[in-house]
Specification:
With about 120 residues, this protein is mainly alpha-helical. Helix content is about 65%, strand content about 0%. The chain has 8 helices and no strands.
Length: about 120
C-alpha cells in the first residue's frame, strides 16, 4: 500500500468520525436526512464527500474498472455490497450510526495492510 493510499484511508476515517459525531447529536428516531447533514457539517456519505471516490473515481458515474482501484472495493466489494449500502438505506439516525460505525470499521481494517 502506498503512502498516499494510507493518507486517503486516514482522511476517510476522520470523515466518518465527523459524520458519526454529528449524527449522534440528532434525534435517534428521526428520519435520516443527507441535506440536513450537508447543512450542518458540509459533508455527507455520498461520492462528493468520500475521500476514496475523490481519489479513485475520475468520471461520473464510476465504472467497475475505476472501482477496482479503490482499496475499500478490493477488500469488501462495491458500495452495493459493503456496509455503505446498509448505511445509505437506513431510515433513522440510530440505524444510520450503527451502519456508519461498521463502515468505519471496514475502512480502519484497511490500515492492517499498512502495518503488516
Amino acid at each position: 500500500m502506498t503512502k498516499s493510499t494510507k493518507t486517503i484511508i486516514e482522511k476517510a476515517l476522520r470523515h466518518y468520525d465527523e459524520m458519526i459525531e454529528w449524527a449522534k447529536e440528532q434525534n435517534p428516531r428521526a428520519w435520516v436526512d443527507d441535506r440536513k447533514m450537508r447543512e450542518g457539517i458540509n459533508q455527507t456519505w455520498y461520492r462528493e464527500s468520500c475521500p476514496f471516490c475523490q481519489k479513485f473515481f475520475k468520471v461520473k458515474p464510476p465504472s467497475d474498472k475505476q472501482c477496482a482501484k479503490c482499496p475499500l472495493y478490493v477488500r469488501y466489494g462495491g458500495c452495493e455490497t459493503n456496509e455503505w449500502a446498509k448505511m445509505d438505506n437506513a431510515s433513522t439516525w440510530k440505524t444510520w450510526i450503527r451502519h456508519a460505525t461498521r463502515m468505519r470499521e471496514q475502512i480502519e481494517s484497511l490500515l492492517e495492510e499498512v502495518k503488516g
